[in-house]
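tmp note - AMP-binding protein
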Amino acid sequence: MKKTPMEEWIIKRTGISPANPKELETYQLKKIVETLNYAKKNSAFYQKQLEGIDPEQIKSWEDFKRLPFTSAEDIKNEPFKFLCVPQSRIDRIVTLNTSGTSGNKKRIFFTDTDLQKTVDFFDYGMRSLIGSSDRVMVLLPGQAYGTIGNLLKKALDRTKTICVVYGLLTDLDAVEKIIVAKKINCIVGIPIQVLYLSRMKQDGFKCIEKVLLSTDYVPQAMVAELNQKFGCQVFNHYGMTEMGYGGGVECQALNGYHLREGDLYFEIIDPVYGEPVADGVYGEIVFTSFDREAMPLIRYRTGDIGAFSQATCQCGTFLRTMKKVEGRLKNRIHLEDGICVDLKALEEILLAIEDLMDYQLIVSDKHALKIDVSFYNEEPSAENENRVKMMVQEYFDKNCELPIQVEVAKNQLQKPDQLVNSMVKRRIVDLRREKRDE
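out:
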């Protein structure tokens, strides 16, 4: 098994000795101090956030972990106060509305130098799964400068890898024709859209050998289907715009991400108390960026659920492995103390039903869950709807002490190939929360 190329890149980027991987922690702490000095000097937000804190007194990880967190709400409320450079130096602004709700939106700023660091990560990250003879199709935004597809193509151009950037999936027939004509054998895309493509265009998908899924949580049921039906190797990428798009990618062991540790420092914390948790324990993923010109982030709470692996990766790297992300904290809807609805568990059930095309989960009160469903067959039998209800009801009967009434209704939901304006992540609609927010 090939060792993750991320190790070579991080050694080259940091200058550490491969014989002494502990040097990486020393490097990261040094970079954190530099980031604190830079942010406190140039960012109005961090001038206030770090008031009374002398970065030069951060001598240990214990010192660092006493620093305050940065939240998504902080960015939504005052995005321009995070800027560390004049607006004239900003080369890309990304406006995020991932929850699908109205109100303030996060704005993330990049200079060209920031974007080039992402190209570096994509270059070595993609080497985990492809070689120069592979032919890649990217089903992610890529027409504008600094978009994911644009940066990914620049990275693959370095290794002279054929790369076709299509953009978000909008035309199944057109994508299938490109796959056949260009002899595409690797697809990079959004999980639900790639699954939709594989189910609707099975003949065209048969030549796909490798898939890299990105931008959202990847249910295991999806991985199993792509692997078993088409023999695809399915790689996971973990990242978010706030990280500079890229955070970590799986190696050939397909057992978790190797992280962008030359550019980012990751922590896992207890989401309630904010304290670090032990390796192997799931908590909230937090990161700090290094050398980010436009908008450094310090101890940024991602809202994602993850854990560091306790085992050494089979590929033989000294780098840490983060287990596959288990979804988002916001998609654990609490019904009563200790009882919750978890989108992850329900998606493993729903995505295993191949007739199901799209769905939306709606919680109206602590005893009721509604599932709006649409099927590939426009006129599905009642048997299909009953099957969905039975499987979900069985899950709650076995795993939830609170009686839950499951309702399934056929609905005309937006198809995955119609999500052309944004990359909104799947979520549970909690009507109770929305009523409280009115």
